[in-house]
Amino acid sequence: MITEVITYIKTCFQSKISSEARAFGHLYESISLVQREKRCSSYWLPHRTMCKNFIEKETKLVMKKGFSNKKVLVLGSGPLHEIPVEFLAGNFERVDLVDVVHLPETKKQWEHLTNLNFINADVTELETDLLREKKPISKIPTAFLNENYDLVLSANLLSQLAYHLRNFLEKKSSPKLTERELDLFAHQVTENHFLYLKKFRCPVLLITDIETHLIDKHGQLVQKETPYIDFSFPSPVEEWWWNVAPIPEYSKKLSVKMKVAGFVLNV
Ligand SMILES: C[S@@+](CC[C@H](N)C(=O)[O-])C[C@H]1O[C@@H](n2cnc3c(N)ncnc32)[C@H](O)[C@@H]1O
To answer: What atom in ligand 1 is closest to the CA of residue 80?
Structure first.
């Protein structure tokens, strides 16, 4: 907790952090994600390896089909724990990495790769308006659609998008929104990201969690949740389990596992 707070203050001084990244809690979330990763690294390693292998394998297949390899766009790049950075930098002329926050330590780690571009942007394109209007808005994003990418990756982002926005509206909307209205909004944000990915005129690799299981000390399933996904995906190319929070990371009595799926869209 103390490490997170100190890093938060240092990052605010050292880097350009948008007011949205602070207001919606993205900066704090990015810092605590890195700390959580350190605490849970042995549990997270299989998931990280699955993500990297999926991206490498499917990228090679896409390139074999004759798609060119000039520019790749990575949405939800964050700390780049799940991205085969060297593979992408070695196979594409340009690698554009988009996240609402890139921590200075991430940029420093990869500064030797000169074809990486870190772009700080809100992938939902809603945050500036939400901050001002404090009411639900629905929009299918348009950024990067006309920039002729050869491949797009959405890396464990889809289920995250609605989280901070819903929390913000729950606290700040006036008049107060009902639970149903908040859930409807969260579903819409999630579906709009999927519709956005479908609009690219190149192959898209989508990695996202599709189910969360809460499990007790005896390994019994206590609760099953799905993120805000009530639309149909195509069949996943691969699925795996991610031990996100072993006891006591989430609680003293429960551990959390997520089912993650890898999809190939637009081919
Ligand atoms: C689970 S992390 C993904 C980790 C990353 N793929 C990696 O390789 O380490 C989810 C990421 O989504 C980003 N994110 C959440 N909301 C966003 C938004 N509206 N626009 C852009 N990025 C967002 C977070 O900052 C975070 O880095």
So the answer is: 8
